[in-house]
Design brief:
The structure holds 2 protein chains of 2 kinds. Chain A is of the alpha+beta class. Chain A is built from 15 helices and 8 strands. Chain A starts with a strand and ends with a helix. Chain B folds into 2 domains: 268 residues, no CATH class; 192 residues, no CATH class. Classes of the chains: A alpha+beta, B alpha+beta.
Amino acid sequence: MAPKALTVIVKIRSGEEASLKSFLADIGRHIRTNSFVRWPESRLVHFARWAILSDPDRGGSRLLFACNYDGELEAFLEELVAIAPGLDQIWGHCEGYTGQSNLLAFIQEHTYKPQAFFIAVRTATVQTIRSAIDLREQIQNFLDLSAVAQWLDYPSITPFLDQLAKVPKMLPWWKAIGQLGMQVMAALGAGVEAIVDAVRKALIAIAIFFVKPLGQPTQPQTLGTYSGLDTDKTQELEAVEDRIVQNQMNIITDIQPSRLLRLQLILLLIDLAGKYLFPPGELLNIRTIHFARWVIIDGGKRMLFISNYDGSWENYIGDFVDKGNFGLNAIWNNSVNYPPGGAQDIVSFRKYVRDHQVPSQVFYCAYPQATVKNILRDRHISQTLATDFNRETVEHWLELL
Amino acid sequence: MPDLTLAARSDIQGMILSGYGHLPDVAYQFLQIHDAAQSKVWLSRLIPAITTAQPWAIQPDGTKAKPEIAINLAWSYAGLQAIRLSPEILNTFAREFIEGMVTPKRSELLGDTGTSAPEHWDVGGSQNPEIHLVLILHGLNREQIQQYLRDLLPEAAGVRAIATEYGFRPPHQREHFGFNDAISQPQIEGTGDKPTAPENVIRTGEFILGYTNEYDLLPSPPTVPRIQDPTNLLPDLATLNAATGASALKDLGRHSTYLVYRKLSQDVAGFWQFIAQHGQDATGCPATSDMLLLASKFVGRWPSGTPLVLAPTQDDPSIEDVNQFQYMPKDAGGFACPIASHIRRTNPRDSLDGSPAESFKTARRHRILRRGSSYGEPLFSLDTLDQNTVPLDIAEDGRPRGLHFFGVNVNIERQFEFIQQTWSNNPKFNGLYNDKDPISGDNDGSGVMTIPRHPIRERVNHMPRFVTVRGGGYFFLPSVTALRFFAL
């Protein structure tokens, strides 16, 4: 079952924003060691964040809680309560919170459903990701043991492998038939896979054909100067970036009222493409996004974008511009003040992102050393090893030596 | 794009377009302005002496009349404040230039931490005097340069010297580890040079303000409100949209660029001792050929400059164009040139995600022109590294040596900082797990260097840092016109 996304937005009691912010920032600074939310004990959460959405124009500030977890909501909340004695202190600053006994109802009441949700690796749970990391590290360390490393060194292992490859594979006739049957099935499977792949690529091409015009810039460039970029805000955003391998992004934009329907259609398309068309780990050719979601909030007035990505902000923006620009334009050009030159107008686009970005006070990742590419590679390493692994057979073989 | 006009070339400072290869000695004179009025008088006298990119005259014998001294001048943000530019002008400079190289965040992303932290620097650091200007002199020898420095900096110049750094470019082009370091440079479009490879010709706007860049856009220049340029010295700010009419702004940036300085100390003994420790043959002795191969795997080229992609097992001096190659056709897995190696990450060419064309598009948006020099006595005879002689029993002599790195780029954040943060210092570069750049990365002993090999990879663990930062700063390298404006 694919991981889920939870997006909860609650109003902060008036006058309590500052104290909540400093409380959260303190948790964020000690993300793995604080006693309020003991994240290292979590077994279900991939990513989680709390972010204050300061918004004096719309009647006060709100608290965003966003998270990606395995399994059912009830089980996740149960875990959250168990590891987070500080929950009352966090949501206690918010309206409508009546304690952990009513947490499920409180969460459900304030949950927003994403219009589009992307998952890099749909079949990966926190447990499978962590165990694949662990397996790979153990294999690497084993290879580094000096005796092993020496034996594996070029001159000695190659003849051994050559010899092994030459051993004739003798099978009794019934097993040979069985193997032939499996080969036929595998070939059929490969054929079906090729067809599915071709259909998928065709569908992507069709989707791009329809979306591309919607993402066309209306003018080439709005020539700007650097003046106008809010330096203090940029520094505030930078301050919580690059702590671990992954980074967090929240972007809130105002939707042009006349474009709401168009936006919803695009998001539906992105959602479907992300679920069924793009290969694992890829969203619009970008291969650094773990989870991303677009959520329409405030009765269709605004859009919240939440993502967990690998590497620097600079690299993420570069990917947006170099690779995903028409898709991004097709989404965000329905927002107010989006650069008419689109993401290709990189100076204006960078400013647009920074202007609408909101820092997360708390940002947690269950595997802070793993990029999307690492996760896919780890999976390949451990799957290949595990596929034909049968403990009894291997142990029996070892006994013979 | 048509070639740069003569007028443009006479406005562009010469070091952007030329490395002054015929001038082996360099001095970097760091200055502080203490009297703004005096300094402006000094500056207006200095301007005619500034070396521009104007083509060198052809002599009767057909050779170019190359200058015997080249003088260039760059400004820090503090320097622009010191001559009291108005806030309306100052605020239009690039944010990273305004903030400077020494901020906690930048130190973090550039890897200027630990022994490389700005509090330990010789120049430009948090404990050093604030730099306002850097005067860069390329000349024939140290004495000649020093004579020029004395002439250029009279008593009443309004500026005082706060630090002087000297550098040199050895005839064999080798940096202190022993590798040819003068090969890969982007070619600037419009300079009229014969292109080596189309992928290596980079749009002018990546290196000079006022021209379109790799996004097909005009970079954002610093500007001056029209009323603050009463003598109409500066050109109008170009707008792509003619309908808006004349801009209310004048363009201070045209023909200018930004300059990144890094004083990089090289631990030559540490490097070769580490290589000797890991480049051992089956009997556990350091072996010359293993050491040479390992060091070359770190760099991605043989000491001569021949890339591993073209000569995977041993150096091949017969290869003429050592910068004409791609990774993906023959070496997608990094079995010749490791993905983690220095040159494959500081200029990844076709080897990033997606198709080679997509990769080149991205790679071309993060290029930098290098204009540096070496400092300090070589620890061993650098040009002997070709003949399969490696420095075996090399010992530290405690004397400083390294590289004055000067990088020319229009967008420090997207070019210099991106290369350092996202490519060199990023252990996750291009799908890797824990491999920083073995040469220019901010290694701390926790990372590895993975060398793909059949049947199984070689992994060098506990990678130390061989290059330490000892100084630096962000500078604005103004056009001659902008210099005149500063002198007003």
